[in-house]
Design a protein that fits this description.
The protein has 272 residues and is mainly α. Helices cover 66% and strands 3% of the residues.
């Protein structure tokens, strides 16, 4: 069901990850994305995978929530994995016509599937454990140097956060519209691909109308509350860098260093 997709939701809690500064989590997330793609062998990939599972466990959020976040890109994961099976070098395991499966291809597929899956789940940690306000403030503070180039940092951070937080709202709206259409006799599960696409048109039109209406209501509400972002804006909750953030940065530095050492000593196991 569409309502089971948890992408973009915030889940309040008191875990160590929840208590981290939003800037720390954003910086570590960007670093994680870089290092997960720097993994060149199974040792480094195992290090990052165990680190990912540890972070997920520390959030104290049900692991099923993270698995549900994969449903959004499940088709992409499967297609990417299948395509990489036929790309690679090494011993030939199976060959038919122009299709060849090699040991290198299987290794590539494993790397890609694990990378995308872990990347998606760990990315969910940021939205699950960071409130919209903290996320906006964190992005704004990190992008503050761009103000020297007359970039409207606050507006950009606010738009990014609102767009992210609108995802679960739109998914819930989509589920309601689909149920309403099914109650009126619409068939969205049977028929050819063309018929299924046509069946989605009655869903997309009211969804777009609802999205624009919600955006207008949000803009009106912000104006009525005299919202005015910028350098003179005060904050109810000030972001503070604490010892917990320093510990997290040092721990992640050790993990990322382990990936580099693993790549240097064990080399590359696949053409990734």
């Amino acid at each position: 069901m569409v309502r089971e997709i948890t992408l973009g939701q915030f889940m309040p809690g008191k875990s160590v990850i929840h208590r981290l500064d939003a800037r720390t989590k954003i910086v570590l997330m960007i670093s994680y994305i870089v290092f997960i793609f720097l993994c060149k062998n199974f040792i480094s990939l195992l290090i990052m995978s165990l680190f990912s599972l540890l972070v997920i466990m520390m959030t104290r959020i049900s692991f099923m929530k993270y698995l549900k976040s994969l449903r959004v890109i499940l088709v992409v994961i499967i297609l990417t994995g299948v395509m990489n099976v036929f790309y690679g070098t090494g011993d030939v395991l199976f060959q038919w016509w122009q299709l060849t499966i090699t040991t290198g291809g299987i290794t590539n597929a494993i790397f890609v599937i694990v990378r995308i899956s872990m990347l998606m789940m760990v990315s969910s940690v940021l939205t699950y454990t960071t409130s919209p306000t903290d996320l906006t403030d964190g992005l704004e503070r990190l992008m503050k140097p761009l103000t020297l180039f007359h970039v409207k940092v606050h507006e950009i951070a606010m738009m990014m956060t609102i767009a992210l937080r609108f995802i679960p709202v739109l998914l819930e709206e989509t589920d309601k519209i689909m149920n309403a259409q099914k109650a009126r006799g619409a068939d969205m599960e049977n028929g050819s691909i063309v018929q299924r696409v046509k069946a989605l048109i009655p869903v997309l039109i009211p969804l777009f109308v609802s999205a624009f209406r919600r955006a207008g209501d949000l803009a009106t509400a912000m104006e009525c509350r005299c919202y005015n972002g910028g350098k003179n804006r005060t904050r109810m909750k000030v972001l503070l860098f604490t010892a917990v953030d320093l510990t997290a940065l040092l721990f992640c530095l050790i993990i990322f260093s382990g990936v580099i050492v693993s790549n240097c000593f064990f080399g590359s196991f696949a053409t990734v």
